[in-house]
Amino acid sequence: MKLRQATAEDFAQIMAILQDGANQLAESGVNQWQGDYPSAQQIKEDIENGWAYLAMADDGQTIGVLSLVAGPDHYYDDLDGKWLISTDNYFVIHRVAIHSKHAGKGYATKLLVSVINYIAASHPDVVSIRIDTHEDNKAMQHLINKMGFKRVGTLQGIYRDDEVSYVYELLVH
Length: 173
Hints:
It is a single chain. This protein is an alpha+beta fold. It is globular. It is built from 4 helices and 8 strands, in the order βααββββαβαββ. It has an 8-stranded mixed beta sheet with strand order 1-2-3-5-6-8-7-4.
């Protein structure tokens, strides 16, 4: 799997994949991404800041999307918990989605492996990777744990007022 930094031309495709992800979550009974997050404005900012990436299968098909945000990420200012390491030298993985037509093929695992390897290789100064997910998103929690991330705390109301997110961290070096 390859990661490609997104451009403005990729906006519609990113939004379509994120909407498909929101639909998958709803079908699974997970009340994540069912409001105005991630918004079109957020994705435009991700692209403008160089944070938005496309996940490309070996055959060149775009199978998913994600955002990689360099720390400090102010979403985490009110973490109820304790980081494994106190640093601003981290990346956060946000807004991860694999299109449903590619579900069940191990792409989510391959995506996170690719992201971890990409960060470690291209940013040797980065010491940790952080990620969060909705308290009811058991599939994402399983994947995050499988990748070796440790749960470090919770966030209340970051994406929506009544929403609880679990926060994880992986030490890179």
